Structures are given as structure tokens and as C-alpha cells.
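The following block was generated as part of the benchmark described in Methods. Ligand: guanosine-5'-diphosphate.
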Amino acid sequence: MTLDLLRFTTAGSVDDGKSTLIGRLLYDTKQVFEDQLDHVAQASERRGGEGALDLALLTDGLRAEREQGITIDVAYRYFATLKRRFIIADCPGHQQYTRNMVTGASTADLSVILLDARKGVLEQSKRHAFISALLGIPHLVVAVNKMDLVDYSQERFDELVAEFEGFAAKLSTIGTGTGMRRDIAYIPMSALNGDNVVDRSDAMGWYEDPTHHPTLLELLEDVEVAYDHPYDRPARFPVQWVIRPAHGSDYRGYAGQMASGALRTGEEVVILPGGQRSTIAAIDTYDGELSEALAPMSVTVRLADDVDVSRGETICRPDEVPTVARELEADVCWMTDSPLRPGGRYLLKQTTSTVTAIVDTLQDQVDVHTLERAGVGGTSSELGLNDIGRVRLRTSAPLVFDPYDQNRRTGSFVLIDETTNNTVGAGMIAATA
Amino acid sequence: MSVVDRPQLSHLQALESEAIHVMREVAAEFERPVLLFSGGKDSIVLLRLAEKAFRPAPFPFPLMHVDTGHNFPEVIEYRDRRVAELGERLIVASVQESIDSGRVAEETGPRASRNRLQTVTLLDAIAEHSFDAAFGGARRDEERARAKERVMSFRDDFGQWDPKNQRPELWNLYNGRIRKGEHVRVFPLSNWTELDVWEYIDAERLEVPSIYFAHEREVFQRDGMLYAWRDGTELIEGESVFTETVRYRTVGDMSCTGGVRSEAATLREVVTEIAATRITERGETRADDRVSEAAMEDRKKAGYF
Ligand SMILES: Nc1nc2c(ncn2[C@@H]2O[C@H](COP(=O)(O)OP(=O)(O)O)[C@@H](O)[C@H]2O)c(=O)[nH]1
């Protein structure tokens, strides 16, 4: 499926130039409105910037951030070119905001990882790359920023590419989503001066071949987006809502959004976890009937037989069924102060079903500094705020799922604390033998 | 990249599908949702999305309008016609009644506005009807404080929003758990821009109130904006009433919604104008946001739309 909408995420260490980069993208694609620009000009002056427009100021939001001068939550930004619409999930980069990075990465198709050309591949860039990989983002772009401060040196750029490649090799072994097919592109740039962000740089003649050396915007405009191949993917249709007009009508439609793949009228289907079989009688939309539904369309499916289907069940094809189980293993990113421990009970929401889950064991934990997995027991037997670890869960009712690295929609879940009602964990289901 | 052999989905179709998904989640997980319908373009789009999400059945929620009593008559007329067409139920929560019953005090002076009073009327109505989820048409591109707003945004039992303590929102999994007295605001158009909204209205051939198109109106100029003059408006010294060809980009309260000079008389012309516009919608037309840099954030914390 081709889509003229790309969701991407950015994160970087403080001062790597993330805000400047986003400001530059918005500014050079002419997305900045006059009143916003006025605003920034005034704020730049107040901060004592000498006449220069501080593009970083285009992107700060809440008052707390204005006070502290840093981003503390995911902020969403929008811009468009003639080719595509873009949604940026702009995330803070500190370790203490790991959960925000996970949030921003969950819906992204591409991740821009910032490096400061002088400093090299620092821990935070690695962490962001790891989280991007763990969350199954198919495209990574390593933006080597501040090239103006290293004399636009190709040698320095090549050095950083080599260093990152060495680290990336390790990525593919460490988590649920990290083994997925992924491509990494490297772009030397200066967000401050605008080199290779939207416009090509005169200063880096060595990076000029337009097919292999795109500017950031060129890459963003051309990269393939998720849902690209619905025909190659198993059909998953989690039922959200049953449409039944009142007053004796016998219409009964199952409403939902295709999570992956394609379904066609006339096709035989199985409904899980119940296991009922039927045939698709019709695929309805407000705009008329369709012969097929493709992810990510929202449609209403009617079945030929009078089977009882309810919210939380998933319509699939019998020859490509997902896992149905009450036990699962998953990487969980913990998002609250009170830690996750074996024995803990939570609500688990996955596709359209919500069940109770009990933590059986904590298998291991990812050290977000070294990005190594370590067995638990010795040092800790719990996941604290921003920790990521492999957990075994049991659920009160069967779930219908795929491993996260095969399906981001049916392989993901959130954990909810029943006493505070807060979302406390994000889970990515692991492939188990 | 070859695209010929692959099905295409436009960004509008993708945004539409995402919004329908959100609406169905809310219908399934909440007991008493309500859709806030102002007659403005964003809520007009919400109504169409609700049709797409729930037809051929009736909507699983009523519509509600918070009526300041200072609305454009064209908008009220449109509102009633649209509701009748849909055959759905409309609740009108009236700011005038909140004033009459002493819940709020009318502001006075030439800059008086009922915009702030709406918050009380809205929260009272939510409590009175025990609504636990309210759909609104707000978008993240509208204003800086909204950029971090969740699609499903939690409000405590005072109706307050706490921007520092928002629930993480991942994938398309929305946590709709609340206690009695609390509610959520739901923004299915979070990821839409103003241009998307107009393009959608155009694509769906939706009717909008006539004030969105260029028309002649008696206006006066204040703080660089053109406000509609109506009986009883107090002018400040130096201001005068004159006739101008304007259109509106938002349909708030007459007392604080400014028009823009425009010749755009058709949907196509509006879309073209918006595509070329260099001033954001709120910066141009809403006096309520201009009061201070953090104006919107403060009102949102207190329970505003
Ligand atoms: N020389 C140079 N400075 C940059 C570049 N990009 C950003 N900066 C500066 O680095 C500092 C931090 O940038 P900012 O965008 O606020 O970083 P953030 O904390 O990652 O959002 C600011 O003083 C920027 O002007 C660049 O490409 N070259």
C-alpha cells in the first residue's frame, strides 16, 4: 500500500540540535506561519540572540518546558510537501524519558537519530536507536549533525558511520522487534545552516550523488511506508463494535480496522479465539460495499452465518492463523514509579480485548546503558520506571496475537494499573518456540 | 520505487480510518459518550466520521452544543438543520442559563466575552448527564499547547487537564479506564491539519455554515482583527463600524472570533486560500489565545474544550 503520509520520530541528546533540525525542516519547507515566526523572533530577542532567528524555538510547547528549556513529553508536529504529509513525534532524549521515546516510536515508520559530529555515537543516540529497533521501526536515519563544526569532513563522517554500523550489528540480537528487516541511512548535515536538511549542501561536495545521497527531506519523501504489502501479510481484523440498528432490522455488522493484510468477500474465515467458521458475506462502508478490505482501512464486515462474534475477537483466514494462548512472553517497557514484580496483576489491553494478566516471571532485563541483556536475580528482580525487560505473563482469557516482529498491531499491548487506572507498561510480544 | 501495482490510500483516507477507529473504541468502552457539536467545520467533520463509524445504526451517543447565546445565527440555523437531517438527538447546554442560575457571572465592558464562561456550562452539563467521554474536534496543529494533547485525554473530577501527568498513549491502544465523576475528552482529529479538514469537507461534499465563505458584514477593527458588530456591542474609543467582505476560519463566540478579509466564496477557493495562508488559524482569528503566550494552556487545564 502506498501512502502519502509518513510518521516519524526524532530523539537526541540535549544540544545535539534536534529542535533546530525540526525547526529547519518546518522553516525550509515553508510551513512556518507568520504569527509563529513573529513569536519566535520575539522570543529569540528576549533570549539575547543577536538578530538570528533561533529555529529551535519553533518547537517548544508547554510552560514547564519553556521554563526548563527542554522537551518533557512527546509533541506532535505536522508538515507537508507536494509529495507527502508528515507527522513528527518529537521526543525528549534523556534516559529518564525512555518511556516517552517508546511512546513516540510506537506509531512511527521511520526514526531520525541525531549525532553531534564532534561527539560521536553517545549513549543516548544508541539508546534511541535501540528503542527504535525494539519498537520495530523499519527505517533508521542517522543524522550526523553539526558537520560545520568538523569542517564538513568526509573522513569524520565515514568514521562515525563505521562506529554506528558496529553498534547496529549488535542491535539485531537484543529484543523483540530488533530482528526485523530494517535499513539504515546516514546523512551528514548542519541543521543550523540548513545543509542537507531540505536543500543540498555546497559545502559537502563529496555527498552529492542524488540517488544514493539524499537530503533528509528527499529521503523522507521517498521512503516506503508501512502497510506497504497487504497482500503478503496475514489478514487480521479485530472486531471493535457490533453494528445492529434497532427495530427489528436483521442487519448485523462487525466493525473494526484491518490490522494487517486483506480480506475479500466470499472468503472463508475463522473467528478467534472462539474458532467459529463462516464466510464473508459483505464488506460495508458508509460509501458503499467493497470487494476487499486492506489494512489500515476501517470497515464493517458481515458474515454469511449466524455466528456469535463480539468485541475482542479477531477475524482471520483459516490457513494463516495467529497464536491463541493464555501465556505469553514479551519485552515490557515500564512506565511508572511503582515497579513491576513477579506476582503483579494488571489489566492488559491488546487489539480490542482487555483481560487480566499476572506477571509470572521476569526473565531478564536490558541494561539501557550497555544495551546488554542480563539475567535477573543478582541485582534486581523488578522493572523500575523506564526499565525494559523480558516478562512472562498469564492471562485470564485467551488472547489472539502474533509476535511483535511480525505484526506491530497484533503483537503489542499496554498494561494498566487497576487501582490508579494509569497506563504503566508497554509490551511487545516475543516469538516463542 | 514502483507504485503502479500497489493499492493506494490517500492521507485523508488514512486519517479518516484512524478517526473512525477512535470513535468505535470510545463507543465500545464508555457508557455515556457525547459528541460536542458546535456547527463549526471540525465538528461537522466529526459528524460525518460518526456516520461512517456507526451507520446504518443510530449514533451510540447524543450530540451536545454549548450555546453561548452569542453565536452566529447562521451557525445555529445550520446546526438545527444538520441535526434534523441526521435524525440524532441534540442537547443544548446554555451559558445564558448558567448566568441566570448564578453559576457564572457575565463579564462586562467592551471586551466582555462568554468564551470563558463556557467551561462551567460544559462541565456542569457533563456532570448533569453523567457523560464519561466527550468527543471534541480539536487538532494538535491548532496551537502549541495542543501539540502534546493525547487523542484520549484524561480529565479529573474537576474537569482539569494535567499536562505534566498524561497517560502514555501507544500504538492505537487507548486506555479508557476512569472512575466515577472523571471523564475523558476524545479528539479523533488530533492528527489532522486545518487543510486536511477543508480538503475532507470538499471531498465529502459537506455543507458548512455560510459564514465560512466570503460575505459582506458590518465589522469593527480591534487589536488588528475584524469583529462582527451586532446590537449591543460596546465599542472602544476610536473604533467604528464599517462594511467589509470577510469570511470566518473558526466559528466561536461572536464576541471573540474575528473574520478575515477574503474573496473566497466557494469551497475550492477556501481550500486554495488555506493552502496559501501564512498565518495560523488561531493566531489570526481567536482573541482568546492572544491574551498571553500560555493562554490556551491555562484554559485547557481548567477544563476548556
Ligand atoms: N554549529 C552548529 N550548531 C548547531 C547545529 N544544530 C544545532 N546547533 C546548535 O546547538 C545548540 C542546541 O541545539 P538545539 O536544537 O536546541 O538542541 P536540542 O537540545 O537537541 O533540541 C543550539 O545552540 C543550536 O544553535 C549545527 O548544525 N551546527
